[in-house]
Amino acid sequence: MTWKPNATVAVVVPDGDAFLMVEEESEGAVVFNQPAGHIEERESVFDAARREALEETGYRVALTGFLGVYIFRSPHNGRTYHRFAFIGRALERVSETLDDGIISAHWLTEEQLVAEEGKLRSPLVLECVRDFKAGRELPLDTIREF
After folding, report:
1. Domain boundary assignment for the chain
2. Which of 61, 108, 114, 124 is the most exposed place for a label (fewest CB within 10 A)?
3. Cα angle 74, 78, 79; round to 5
4. What is the pLDDT of residue 76?
5. String of b and e for 14-31 (b: at least 16 CB within 10 Å)?
6. Which residues of the chain have pLDDT under 50?
């Protein structure tokens, strides 16, 4: 079998000091994560990020910047994830119905995330928040899809 990474997206959505997060079930545990998920076949990374945010939180999100690509090798399942992390702005909540496995959406501060560090989906959750707070932001046209 040929090795290949899992291509995923995530969106850091700030509002003041808080960030839009999802509480979800993962491998038998309840964890916190940014709105995130896998890129579907023939889907752009931009469309995937907006879709995942909507499906997991009920919010339409406008992408405003790109944080970067984060590579994570999970010690739990041995898989490698290439996470395209975006910055977004919540436009409006249009649905109360959330994706399977999503318990609820929350607005949490960095301090609240640190307090729940043992319940974060991966170390990337805090890394992305801290990179955003440090001012990291690349233009969206850093990514070019053909």
Report:
1. 6-92+100-137
2. 114
3. 75
4. 84
5. beeeebbbbbbeeeeeeb
6. none
133 residue type, one letter: K
> Are the beta carbons of 61 and 50 closer than 8 angstroms?
yes
Q: Report the pLDDT value the prediction gives residue 126, as an integer from 0 to 100.
A: 97
- Phi, psi (degrees; rounded to nearest 5) at 81: -115, 130
* Domain covering 6-92+100-137, topology: Nucleoside Triphosphate Pyrophosphohydrolase (3.90.79)
List phi, psi (to 5°) of 128: -65, -45
What's the pTM value of the predicted model, to 2 decimals?
A: 0.95
